[in-house]
UniProtKB/TrEMBL annotation:
TM regions (residue ranges): 30-51, 92-125
Bilayer topology term: Multi-pass membrane protein
GO molecular function terms attached to this record: cytochrome-c oxidase activity
Originating organism: Streptomyces luteoverticillatus
Protein name as it appears in the record: cytochrome-c oxidase
Lineage: Bacteria, Bacillati, Actinomycetota, Actinomycetes, Kitasatosporales
Catalytic activity: 4 Fe(II)-[cytochrome c] + O2 + 8 H(+)(in) = 4 Fe(III)-[cytochrome c] + 2 H2O + 4 H(+)(out)
Amino acid sequence: MKTEACLFAGVAVFFLLTDAVYMWFAREPAGGAALTVCFLMASVIAFFCAVNHRRKGGRPEDRRDGRIHERGGALDFFPPHSGYPPLTALGAALLVLGIVYGLWLFIMGAAVTVAGILGMVFQFVNADD
């Protein structure tokens, strides 16, 4: 993850410099806002990769002498199936329809969306840990 963190940090620096130059010459807010969002997104990914590298340590892919067999075995936990993604999609659809038809539908959509997101986040949390 160290290589990915450095790569996305470089992308973030590129967008930051491009944003500064663009704002200086163009003086137009829409492009500056878009470049700022690109900088922030690349920074979040770089931060995530750096934290994962610090927390989990180096991977065989990060070392020059890493071997293929070191990466064998179970990689991670992948959930089998869940009903929460369709619930979240339904909530998002109600949110969008609520913008058109009224606040009451928007509030219902927000509640369903939050329930779906919380369900996805906490579905496989083991209470014993």
